[in-house]
Design a protein that fits this description.
Layout lengths: L1 H15 L17 H15 L3 E2 L4 H8 L7 H4 L5 E4 L3 H14 L3 E4 L16 E4 L6 E3 L5 E4 L5 H9 L3 E2 L10 H6 L7 H4 L6 E7 L5 E5 L4 H6 L9 E8 L1 E2 L3 E9 L3 H16 L6 E10 L2 E11 L10 H4 L6 E2 L2 E3 L1 H9 L7 E10 L2 H15 L9 E9 L1 H4 L19 E10 L5 H21 L3 E2 L13 H4 L2 H14 L4 H4 L11
Helix pairs in contact: 1-17, 2-5, 6-12, 10-13, 13-15
Length: 512
């Protein structure tokens, strides 16, 4: 019945068009260009004063390329006319409502870890920077951690570690909370608690009108569900209330082995994913990464985590027993330390590219796609500072089955999909002159690997937003009904379609 109502509602929108300006106030024609951007910034300055930052100021430069700057060169090189250094949800509400009324294009930045130019920044427009909204507050009963979108996961965990608590969040210390959760979010705790978005109890959201609302299972539940994987399409989340749980020390680290061990590792990954999907030991997780350098396949780096302080658990012993090993950092430690280590291999300041695909759990497929990657990277592997990774991450039934326990999400994944594996393709290089060649190689790898999986009936259409190539379309990959549902929610909470028309960054609801 719900799906029929959903289709009817969306059909009405398509037939009758978007609500008129009277539904949410006047919306000026989009203001574009450097001069127009200046007018937008000056209008904001009248309301927000010194929180409007202009180029060549210390704080502006720091948010662009300093200690608090973007991860990639591509985003650093995008220069907005001004940045809004918001420190509260009310600042965000003031900025958004003014920008919407004036028709000013803007971007939204939490941690700034999405790689492509314009994802969380905007040329000659206004960037709303949430990095100062970074609070981490724990409820008296220790069941909820209220976290600002600008907090980095390392900051979150460093506070929770001291309290014997954790949340199901990101695995890299420098990644921001906002983007990771709104894109779905994988976690060391996924087999126990699902995706990071499934651990959200409540979202505080600033709508395009400037109204601040809560979205949870009891209030605005349609928006609550849509935000779980919906990106920046509905509003700006200014607080995530995350389900907290007891967590002491854990065990983990990297085991690095020669590239010659790849064949056995694909088999071990298949076995691990199957066991995980069958409910065997939900405390274990693995990131299985195959690294390429200028000379081709270089080594395999397994990031192993066991969220108990128990060394060498049985479910991970296939990986810990691989020989030879170039290095082994496995130890009992805390969550903060593990996320710092995982982020050390992806420093700021390079050009970066992500792409992704989802496959059924099949070792032979992984081996054949790895062979494709080895061939496709050959023409580009001599470019300056080239490094690429071919990363496999198990997404078993144990993970996708958790969403229904916490109000659901619209990612379109569930136990009936079987045990899946995400392919995360990443490439790092130094010069913009090599962009076209790198992009062509990555697109070719995505296309060929996808076609190969389809030919063997091992393909799943899901595209993980946080790893997606700019040209990919995660929203449509959630499935027709889920994409329609998101469109309906967008029309309800953003009737003027501000976040579709004025915010070009991120992955929009209707890209095709």
């Amino acid at each position: 019945m719900f799906h029929h109502l959903l289709l009817a509602a969306f059909a009405s929108v398509l037939i009758n068009g978007a609500p008129s300006a009277s539904a949410g106030g006047a919306l000026s024609s989009n203001i574009r260009g450097r001069n127009a951007g200046t007018n937008c910034c000056l209008a904001l300055q009248r309301n927000l004063g010194g929180k409007i930052l202009f180029p060549n100021s210390t704080q502006f430069d720091d948010q662009q390329s300093g200690a608090d700057g973007y991860w990639t060169q591509q985003e650093t090189n995008v220069i907005p006319t001004c940045r809004v250094a918001a420190t509260s949800s009310q600042d965000v509400a003031t900025a958004v409502s003014k920008l919407a009324d004036l028709g000013c294009s803007f971007a939204i930045r939490s941690g700034g870890h999405m790689g492509w130019a314009g994802a969380a920044n905007i040329q000659d427009g206004v960037t709303i920077d949430l990095s100062a909204i970074n609070q981490v507050n724990v409820s008296i009963n220790r069941m909820i951690a209220s976290v600002g979108p600008g907090a980095r996961w390392g900051e979150v965990y460093s506070q929770l570690d001291t309290m014997g608590l954790a949340v199901a969040g990101g695995r890299v210390a420098e990644v921001g909370v906002g983007g990771l959760v709104l894109g779905g979010g994988n976690s060391f705790f996924a087999s126990r608690y699902g995706f990071a978005c499934d651990g959200v109890v409540n979202f505080e959201v600033v709508l395009a009108s400037g109204r601040i609302i809560n979205a949870n299972i009891a209030q605005n539940d349609d928006l609550y569900k849509a935000l779980k994987g919906g990106g920046n399409n509905f509003g700006i989340v200014t607080r995530f209330d995350l389900r907290a749980f007891s967590q002491g020390k854990l065990w983990g680290g990297f085991v690095v082995s020669p590239a010659s061990t790849a064949a056995e590792q694909f088999k071990y990954l298949q076995d691990f994913t199957t066991a995980s999907g069958n409910g065997v030991d939900p405390y274990a997780s693995i990131i299985n990464a195959y690294i390429f350098t200028g000379n081709g396949p270089a080594f395999v780096a397994n990031q192993l985590t066991y969220t108990k302080p128990e060394a060498y658990p049985t479910i991970l012993q296939n990986f810990t027993n691989i020989q030879p090993q170039y290095s082994n950092t496995l130890r009992t430690t805390n969550l903060t330390d593990l996320t710092i280590e995982l982020g050390a291999g992806t420093p700021n300041g390079f050009r970066q590219l992500f792409a992704t695909a989802t496959f059924q759990n099949n070792a032979q497929l992984f081996a054949d796609i790895y062979a494709l990657a080895t061939k496709i990277y050959q023409p580009v592997q001599k470019v300056d500072s080239f490094q690429a990774s071919f990363v496999l991450q198990p997404i078993s039934k144990a993970i996708t089955g958790k969403a229904s326990l916490t109000g659901g999400n619209l990612l379109g994944l569930g136990p009936t999909d079987g045990d899946l594996v995400w392919l995360d393709i990443t490439v790092q290089w130094a010069s913009a002159s090599d962009d076209a060649a790198i992009n062509k190689a990555v697109q070719s790898l995505v296309t060929q690997s996808t076609n190969l999986a389809k030919s063997r009936n091992l393909y799943n259409q899901f595209i993980y937003m946080n790893y997606a190539l700019q040209s990919q379309d995660p929203i449509s990959a959630y499935g027709v009904l889920n994409a329609l549902s998101m469109n309906v929610v967008s029309r309800i909470y953003d009737p003027r379609q501000v976040f579709q028309r004025l915010v070009p960054g991120g992955f929009k609801l209707n890209r095709r």
